[in-house]
């Protein structure tokens, strides 16, 4: 006989964390619903600071994040469009006051430990951000003349204004980073000989992929995308040919084609080997390029360059269609070939890590693809005391992953320097706090707002091409912001159930607009899930809540969390308060900080919490 | 009770009936009853029954009197006709509506106070007249709207919230209706929709008067240890005497039953009720036996529930219901031309002449 389902352990932080889809989806587990509520209350600085706890670049990421939170937003499953989480983050950043007084204090007396970071990108900066308040001395070696890594070199200014970038990088540098610019590391062995207690490698994936086709090396008008963008950033390139072909259709390709538009090109084509469903670029970046009249041609496979007298005249493409081939991979079938004339070609087909500067005999093991072997939990390489994160570790990801790698590496470095275990990770915690304010009053806006996702306004098409540094997105205005924040379903304000109080009156089941609830007898999962009020749509990705046996009949309460809009009607209709709306506050540990602990001087976050979450004292079920 | 309206957003798997309506389309406005009131569960069961029967809401007349029960028709079938009448007078209003328009499906919602105290006379006579309606008594044993005094259905020995003991004998609407000749008598429980929804459907399809007395706990005044109408007491003493499935016309039940376990009773419109798990000596069509059986269960301290009595469609003629007895016209009055309904002063004069 198959066993009945076990009651859900809601004291395990993971259960309620999974209900908060955006936070679960974010690599850094940013407390998104809370920062959106702070924006709704006009508390922009508090919102920014809450963001900064996990995601140390709210202004930068409010413009450039790859938004892993948005496709998983519950709102997608209800009305098709996620809450504009990313751009709301920008609102908090744009409208914040000076937050410097609330950054952690840096001890004047150091702890005597010295850390070297290679590369001044998002991962190294995060390591510095986490370790400096603990008294570490952090040195960052950067080969270029400016810090920031790809945030500086590869994201054009019309997407990320320099002011925003430098402000947030400076918050960290001003904590006392020993920044060595124009200082490439040519030998890790040499660096290791110096007196550092630990080394963090956050050198990114700086090598653009090559396209070795006939004619590739016969002209100077063929560029590698990320190198070309870097040259534009440093002002070495300030114009380009009239007709530009961009090869590849990822996010770098989108930045390249839009930059070319601004450097004088009048005819920019993005050449894709496959069709739209296979494009690597984020949908919104594709949309922005198409809005700027960039042409995207599908099923064009590059075959050779046409060069005359060292000048690019065009490219030959195979016209292909794709069919399912062996082992599930698509196979190209060539139909014809076609010449497309152009003056310049930019190759944006991906990028790789490159470690010519890491000697292979110093105890750092490399795998068959010549990638260093890095532990996914501790971020340490096979050589003790050498850590790695960001794109350098496992290839190109995005900024928010680099930030999370930095946080985890900092925890490891701190443990390593104290001689503690790296594998015993500090546990997460959770506070669960009732949000009831009165008979029908909750601390949060619990009604469902049917508004559609706010549309970002862009600078006029004529206007935006005048200069390279005109930011295209204007940001949400206050009216848009006030509507958009209401679209958030407050998924962190949980429907919390206490089985021993339930009298099985069915009131919650009758009122639930999304038919999430069922009272039925327990049984094996397969059988039980067939007896639910509404069919399961997103199981097992979204958790099922299974209660303890109910006192009167021994049946159980089952909740499918998938589509719950957290309106609180179950709790309002419950005569015995068996249902209550409780905010699950995920407590995340950082280097030197246990879950929920804050650096001295960060108490503004407590104030912010009081402002939205009501009195924090009663009904605290502290865990972990 | 809530300050926000139930959001219209719904589960994508919500199904439509043949009219293209979802269950949500049969809802009314937000309930203002106490949180956990049994009446709200009954409302949800009524919504389910109408949706499953695929009844157009505008073909329905919903009526009520005074009390917590009097409020409930507002909470279902927003597009139906409704009348919230004087205390205890719901039967007269329903009789009037049904007399004028026999095509309307009538559902009256009353309470133990509204039906067994102030409206007792009305209740008795609407049963006698066999008005074609579903009569629901939301029975909680107390006057909830006036703060919890015992009602006429409170059992001897049960206590009020503050401990006073009831010494007056209760009126049992089910026994009363059996006595008065009702053709469809049921008792159910707001906390058991599996039982309640099929009975509601059968009651709506029954031609003539149908009574469903539903134990509906008052969470505010009568859900305590001394109560015999609480969730806990009802569950502890629950005896589902018979299981009744409603089978629509031309619809074969696929479930298999043990031989001898099933008893089918036909309704006028071709639908039928299948009784299963009926105790060997129980005959749901034998009025006297049912009366005795319920009395016996009551003496054993049980709350006997189920579709307890139904008369066979064949046994009673077409002429036995209100319109048949009164010999009224075949069509609803609304379908007659104005000139025929109101033939003028001269015809009135002639009519009156006959009485002089």
Q: Tell me, what's the shape of chain A?
A: globular
Most extensive interface: pair and counts?
A-B, 34 and 32 residues
Percent of residues in β-strands of chain B: 15-25%
Distance between the termini of chain B: 59 Å
> Number of helical runs of chain B?
12
Unreliable segments of 5+ consecutive residues of chain A: 611-624
The fold-level CATH name of chain B is Rossmann fold
The gyration radius over C-alpha positions of chain A equals: 27 Å
Q: How would you state the average pLDDT of chain A, rounded?
A: 93
Q: How far is the first residue's CA from the last residue's CA of chain A? A: 35 Å
Total DSSP E strands of chain B = 13
Helix content of chain A: 25-40%
**Total separate domains of chain B:** 1
Q: Give the H and E element order of chain B.
A: HEHEHEHHEEEHEHEHEEEEHEHHH
Placed side by side, the strands forming the largest sheet of chain B appear as 2-1-3-4-8-7-13-9
Identify the strand order in the major beta sheet of chain A: 3-2-1-4-15
Largest sheet of chain A: 5 strands, parallel
Q: What helical percentage do the residues of chain B reach?
A: 25-40%
Characteristics of this structure?
heterodimer, A: 624 residues, alpha/beta, FAD/NAD(P)-binding domain, 3 domains, five-stranded parallel sheet, 22 helices, 23 strands, globular, disordered C terminus, B: 356 residues, Rossmann fold, eight-stranded mixed sheet, three-stranded antiparallel sheet, 12 helices, 13 strands, 29% helix
